[in-house]
Write a structure and sequence with these properties.
By secondary structure, the protein is of the alpha/beta class. It has one domain: 3-Layer(aba) Sandwich (Rossmann fold), CATH 3.40.50.150. It is built from six helices and nine strands. A hairpin with a 2-residue loop joins strand 8 and strand 9 (193-202). Helix 1 (6-17) runs antiparallel to helix 2. The structure holds S-adenosyl-L-homocysteine. Residues 56, 60-63, 86-87, 89-90, 92-93, 107-110, 113, 135-137, 152-153, 205, 207-209, 212 line the site of S-adenosyl-L-homocysteine. S-adenosyl-L-homocysteine binds at residues 56, 60-63, 86-87, 89-90, 92-93, 107-110, 113, 135-137, 152-153, 205, 207-209, 212.
């Protein structure tokens, strides 16, 4: 079946994003345009545009659309940014970022997920994404500094290397807390100080690595 789900996406944007306070027009357009169903297994396609997380294998999940929109909006992307993503997972959030940034650098620790996302994103025509299989709590030093950094897994603290790789006026969003629940923290860099803002509660899978949780 070659179903585009365009109407389901429009409904998702209206009912789950606009009605819950997402206002950034570029974010709403990207989420209306990018197909979420292609990033999940076919048996779950019918659920792709409902507002909940879904399994993507390896005990990981694709985040719910509202959280993707909220985190992306917080990055204030205008289209000129170098954006770093930690936790490629399915590649769905990567696609949204690639649509809204100049270049996306994405790091994933589980190789089969990374390779799957790479294939999928290349087949979708994206050519502004660089992929790396590694512990992303170290960031990606070769291309620092980044105007925007997004971490899509929950961490006990903000990894120090990521703060160092944030550009002047750069924004980072990261879930920080314990393994059962976190707060979404937005960090803005001004010189060598980091302004923190709490965007609310959330629940992510663990960020596993040297500057995150132990495996
Ligand atoms: N943004 C993804 C969400 C995937 S879930 C999506 O839209 O599908 C979080 C991902 O973070 C998982 O794939 C997990 O393997 C990855 N992850 C956890 N710890 C990591 C680390 N230290 N470095 C890189 N990726 C990590």
């Amino acid at each position: 079946m070659n179903h585009d789900y365009r109407l389901a996406r429009e409904r998702m944007v209206r009912n789950h994003l606009i009605s819950r306070g997402i206002t950034d027009k570029r974010v709403l357009q990207a989420m209306g345009r990018i197909q979420r169903h292609v990033f999940i297994e076919e048996a779950l396609h019918g659920e792709a545009y409902n507002d909940h997380p879904l399994p993507i294998g390896h005990q990981q999940t694709i985040s719910q659309p509202y959280i993707v929109a909220m985190m992306t909006e917080a990055l204030e992307l205008k289209g000129t940014e170098k954006t770093l993503e930690i936790g490629t997972g399915s590649g769905y959030q990567t696609a949204i970022l690639a649509d809204l940034s100049r270049t996306v650098y994405t790091v994933e620790r589980i190789r089969p997920l990374l390779e799957n996302a790479r294939k999928l994103l290349e087949s979708q025509g994206f050519s502004n994404i660089l992929f790396k299989g590694n512990d992303g709590t170290f960031g990606w030093k070769d291309f620092e500094p980044y105007d925007a950094i997004i971490v899509t897994a929950g961490s006990p603290k903000i990894p120090e290397p990521l703060l160092k790789q944030l550009s002047e006026k750069g924004r980072m969003v990261i879930p920080v807390g314990n393994r059962a629940g976190q707060d979404l923290i937005k960090v803005t860099r001004v010189g060598n100080s980091f302004k923190e803002e709490n965007l609310g509660g959330c629940r992510f899978v663990d960020l596993i690595g040297t500057h995150g949780w132990d495996a």
